[in-house]
Design brief:
Blueprint: E1 10-18, H1 24-41, E2 43-59, E3 62-74, H2 76-87, E4 92-99
Antiparallel strand pairs: 1-3, 1-4, 2-3
């Protein structure tokens, strides 16, 4: 006797560290292209632009990066496609795709925060 099971695509986080020396339009194009591929084959869950931040260590001789988080449902073929595309895309300093466990809390809203600079305080005016 065969059982039919609906299999829900797993949810993934894609963290992108983009070269801060690229023009903003080029960085946005990279993110837009990734989102297009995801939407063609799966479902977007969310997008978080965390902005320019210090990296914990130099990545390709850069001490800062433009951090982006894209959350989506995916299947292995889409993951393979994204992995290949991001490896050869100029301007991507580093990326990581991680499968989320059920019940993982939503990511923090870091868009307004300044992390790792050590220079800013809540009283500083920008």
């Amino acid at each position: 006797m065969a059982r039919r099971m609906t299999v829900e695509a797993a949810t993934y986080d894609l963290t992108l560290l983009l070269d801060p020396e690229l023009e903003e339009a080029r960085r946005e194009k990279i993110v837009s292209d990734v989102e297009t591929v995801i939407q063609q084959h799966a479902e977007m869950v969310g997008r978080h632009d965390w902005g320019m931040r210090k990296t914990a260590f130099d990545v390709r001789k850069r001490g800062d990066a433009d951090y982006r988080l894209i959350q989506f449902h995916a299947t292995p073929p889409l993951l393979d496609s994204l992995n290949h595309a991001l490896k050869i895309t100029d301007g991507v300093l580093r990326f990581r795709i991680m499968k989320l466990r059920r019940g993982t809390p939503a990511p923090p809203d870091l868009s307004a925060a300044v992390i790792g600079t050590g220079a800013g305080t809540a009283d500083d005016d920008d």
